[in-house]
Amino acid sequence: MKVLGIMGSARPDGNTNDLLDVALAAAAAAGAQVEKIMLTDHRVEHIENCRTCVERGRCVHEADDFTSLMAKVYAADAILFASPVYWYSIAGRLKVFLDRWSCEYYRDSYEAFAAKLRPKAMGVITVQEETGVEQARHLIGALEKTVGFARATYLGYVLGPGGKRGSAKANPEAVAAAHDLGRRAATHVPAAN
Ligand SMILES: Cc1cc2nc3c(=O)[nH]c(=O)nc-3n(C[C@H](O)[C@H](O)[C@H](O)COP(=O)(O)O)c2cc1C
User: How many domains does the chain have?
Assistant: First the structure.
């Protein structure tokens, strides 16, 4: 069982990363092999929506890190998307990475793409400075829809407090929810295609 965290915050030592680490540690304790992608450490170009891959079989951005990161996505049994609320939505780094997922099904087909993702479980970790789930509604909703588009199993979301570094890990409820999400990711039984 492989659990992959995808960390989309600008701060590698921020609250998003702290909660993701809690979830990944819980997954490891439950017996999973865990890995984390720090999107700050990688170059992922914006999608061009050029469909060049359909004509030439190659992406115009083949020199960036997208293909190697996507290989990790396909190899994982469970994926935890971690992003702070930025302007009531998904942080740009994660959004740019997800936009490129479209190239995968343009190049192949939606059916081929969904067949690779459908057995997986996917969950969401987010933090915000304001209070109330309403502020995070678009981020959570977009990622929940993305999981549905992939036909994967949705594990739910964790919403913790953000702002000052350390706020989320000082919040017992957020830590417990992240721990539970990680444990459930590790014990997911892959769905049959
Ligand atoms: C560009 C940007 C946009 C933000 N937009 C929101 C927002 O719309 N609502 C909110 O509650 N907090 C917002 N915040 C606050 C962050 O969600 C908060 O600082 C969070 O802790 C950042 O994640 P991190 O701790 O992982 O760095 C924003 C922060 C930044 C940098």
Answer: 1
| Backbone phi and psi for residue 7, each to the nearest 5 degrees, phi listed first | -100, 115
The pTM of this model reads 0.98
- How far apart are the C-alpha atoms of 15 and 31, rounded to whole Å? 25
* Residue 97 included in any domain: yes
| b/e map 113-130, b = 16+ CB within 10 Å | beebbebbbbbbbbbbee
Ligand 1 pocket: which residues have CB below 6 Å?
A: 9, 11, 14-17, 84-88, 127-130, 135, 162-163
193, part of any domain: no
pLDDT tens across 35-82, in order? 999 999 999 999 999 999 888 888 999 999 999 999 999 999 999 999
Give the residue whose CA is nearest to atom 14 of ligand 1: 86
Q: For the domain that residue 111 is a member of, what is the CATH number?
A: 3.40.50.360
Domain hosting 175: range is 2-186
> Residue 88 CA: which ligand 1 atom is closest?
8
Protein residue with least CA distance to atom 4, ligand 1: 86
Evaluate whether residue 192 is within a structural domain: no
